[in-house]
Amino acid sequence: MKTAKILKHPLIEHKLGIIRNKETKTKEFRETVSEIAGLLTYEITRELKLKEKEIETPVSKCISYELKDEVVIVPILRAGLGMVEGIQNLIPSAKVGHIGLYRDEETLEAKEYYAKFPVGMKDSTVLLIDPMLATGNSTVKAIDILKNKGAKNIIFVGLVGSPEGVERLQGAHPDVQIYLAALDEKLNEHGYIVPGLGDAGDRLFGTK
Ligand SMILES: O=P(O)(O)OC[C@H]1O[C@H](OP(=O)(O)OP(=O)(O)O)[C@H](O)[C@@H]1O
Ligand SMILES: O=c1cc[nH]c(=O)[nH]1
Ligand SMILES: [Mg+2]
């Protein structure tokens, strides 16, 4: 089983404070989620493999490098969409797949309503993204779907997680590396992360 990595950095801590604050409005919330996703990308891509490429500088030939494997970003709709641009800014060649899931408010089960992936995902590094890892039901289901489509190298990137969600995800998919900006205290009786940041989808899209 891979240990979950919590990526601590002063800028990430500062920006987490902005999105946790209930006074933060939609525009700043959306921009800050995207910025944190970009900052996380620097760390989560550290292990990506490179291939050599000969180029010419204005002075001479030299060996340079480029990413060896394709990267596919897969947001879990809706809230995962808020992280796409921040990652794409740094990996412009990445393709984007989508998985639509919503939590049944009563049972907290994840229900699938959409899935669409680029061709060639089997051989790509897949970055599954969602700001919130609460019960873990959505992420576990999304990874089930990705593995059914043949994805082998899957990394989960979230902003805020709960101990319950991390345990559930590690139990169901021990091969998947988990990256988070913060690991919070617990879930409340409604399955919300405490202290968390509330409903990420509603805050991103202004739906409540
Ligand atoms: O770990 P879990 O308990 O499954 O909860 C986390 C999920 O809940 C939220 O989505 P939601 O169902 O609210 O959909 P939305 O993004 O469309 O708002 C969030 O974006 C995650 O996908
Ligand atoms: O705290 C939570 C839990 C699930 N989904 C969210 O958006 N927030
Ligand atoms: Mg929501």
Molecular structure report:
By secondary structure, this protein is an alpha/beta fold. The protein has a single domain (5-205), classed as Rossmann fold. It contains six helices and 15 strands. The chain has helices at 10-20, 26-44, 81-88, 137-148, 163-172, 200-205; strands spanning 5-6, 50-56, 61-67, 71-77, 95-96, 98-103, 110-116, 125-129, 132-133, 153-157, 160-161, 177-180, 182-183, 186-187, 193-194. The strands form four sheets. Strands 1, 4, 5, 6, 7, 8, 10 and 12 form an eight-stranded mixed beta sheet that branches. It has a three-stranded parallel beta sheet with strand order 9-11-13. Strand 14 and strand 15 (193-194) form a beta hairpin. The longest helix has 19 residues, at 26-44. It is globular, with a radius of gyration of 17 Å. 37% of the residues are buried. The model has no long low-confidence stretch (mean pLDDT 97). The structure holds 1-O-pyrophosphono-5-O-phosphono-alpha-D-ribofuranose, uracil and magnesium ion. 1-O-pyrophosphono-5-O-phosphono-alpha-D-ribofuranose (PRP) is lined by residues 76-79, 101-103, 108, 110, 130-139, 165, 191, 199-201.
Set down the secondary structure blueprint.
Elements: E1 5-6, H1 10-20, H2 26-44, E2 50-56, E3 61-67, E4 71-77, H3 81-88, E5 95-96, E6 98-103, E7 110-116, E8 125-129, E9 132-133, H4 137-148, E10 153-157, E11 160-161, H5 163-172, E12 177-180, E13 182-183, E14 186-187, E15 193-194, H6 200-205
Parallel strand pairs: 1-12, 4-5, 4-6, 4-8, 8-10, 9-11, 10-12, 11-13
Antiparallel strand pairs: 2-3, 6-7, 14-15
Bound molecules: 1-O-pyrophosphono-5-O-phosphono-alpha-D-ribofuranose, uracil and magnesium ion (MG).
1-O-pyrophosphono-5-O-phosphono-alpha-D-ribofuranose (PRP) binds next to strand 4, strand 6, strand 9, helix 4 and helix 6.
